[in-house]
Amino acid sequence: MGFPKNFMWGGATAANQCEGAWNADGKGMTVSDACTAGTVSTPRYTTYLTKDGVPGKAGMFDTLPEGAHRAVLDGYYYPYHEGIDFYHRYKEDIALFAEMGFKIFRMSIAWTRIFPNGIEEEPNQAGLDFYRNVFEELKKYNIEPLVTIFHYDLPAYLEEELGGWSNRELIGHFERYARVLFKEYNGLVKYWLTFNEINSPILLRNYLPNYSNAKVGQALQVLHNQFVASARAVRAAHEINPEMMVGSMLAGICSYPLTCNPSDVLATQKRVQDDFYYCCDTMARGEYPYFAQRLWDEYDVKLTTEPQDFVDLKEGKVDMITFSFYSTGCVTVDENAEKAKGNFTSGAKNPYLQYSEWGWSIDGQGLRYFLNELYGRYQLPLMVVENGLGAVDVLEEDGSIHDPYRIAYTKEHVLAMKDAIADGVNLIAYTYWGCIDLVSASTGEMKKRYGFIYVDRNNDGSGTMKRYKKDSFYWYQKLIASNGEDLD
Ligand code: BG6
């Protein structure tokens, strides 16, 4: 049994990592516009001016000093400012996606192109026009857009003046923004995702050292507000056009017990509940799962809610489950077990897996396992909306790029999806992450390349921005043309 005839093959990007044009045509400042470049071993920073005008920098996940505003400072490099210039080159890029045979293209909308500070009553026409042009260009090639409404680029105003997602006021601003998009692009966009990797606030506790209980409590409040905002958006989409399909999008945290020690197994069950199902259950079932109280008690959290929130959650259940999947992690109670690096999947090192140069495990079978787990639990259509290998590529003199490692990685995951479909899973789409090289979210590098298309742009901002086809470009083209059969 192969992939269904109408399976949607494609690729994925996010606005801040590829568009550039960070302050063009009325766009407002986002929190990511003040993010500097880092590497695998040096962190990215957020730069700011204190209320007295003194320049400073803070870790990407740290809180700025009271009254400080994000600012672009001399002496720092901000890779998102130009990204890969998709803003001006989208026609050329979409033509390349079409040449590969894409059926679907995942992208995000920058909130600040539509509402520069997030609070305006009227949207910015230039921003609306830009995305309309992109969608029309996709339509020319029969590529279905899959649009993330919010992908890690909150308007800086909402963060600094309103306190970010801890403040319930953002629910209304998000709903207004989402409604504008659904109305404006009704007929052009059918598939929507509300929040990218919505579970990331809770995942930070595994990832950042000294993450206090109070911070986890705040993350759970942020999540409550985001669940309600997402549910209201889902309901609005269905009111505007019942054909629209709106999905949750989560970081696909798949964890195994490191050993068959029952303590490891129990710790893993708890980890998966807290990392993933807490969010996914709430969005798919319209209510918090049975173990939510246990989690709130553990961190001594008393959520601020309103009775209407629970009605909204019920009325705004998602139509499909989507997730990113890069690697898997292991959980153990043994504090001396060797640790892995990795995205949010960190944890103990799996002796059966290979690891990428950035320390992420490579685990195709994990994808089959995870797809089965999710379909068994929800029986909703699934999409893998991010999966890919970040690696160093070499542009040869003749313009070719030989990336057998990327082909091998993708092949392994395609086979896993095929097996999951044979298992009976209703998987409807696959959008490979970073189908064109773009700025890495965690490190701010260009060097960590995911693309089937190479972009001549380097970590220090040098390069012509010219696009080149990698070997994987031709491989993916054949794969799509054969609907997942030709894997060589
Ligand atoms: C996901 C994000 O976590 O991982 C993307 O949704 C990100 O925005 C992707 O780019 C890969 O991570 P990185 O750090 O390698 O860019």
Outline:
With 488 residues, the protein is α/β, with parallel strands linked by helices.
Characterize the structure shown.
The chain has 488 residues and is of the alpha/beta class. It is built from 14 helices and 19 strands. The protein has an 8-stranded parallel beta barrel, surrounded by 5 helices. The protein starts with 7 loop residues before the first strand and ends in a 7-residue tail after the last helix. The model has no long low-confidence stretch (mean pLDDT 96). The structure holds 6-O-phosphono-beta-D-glucopyranose.
Q: Main traits of this protein?
A:
19 strands; 488 residues; binds 6-O-phosphono-beta-D-glucopyranose; 8-stranded parallel beta barrel; 16% strand; 3-stranded antiparallel beta sheet; alpha/beta
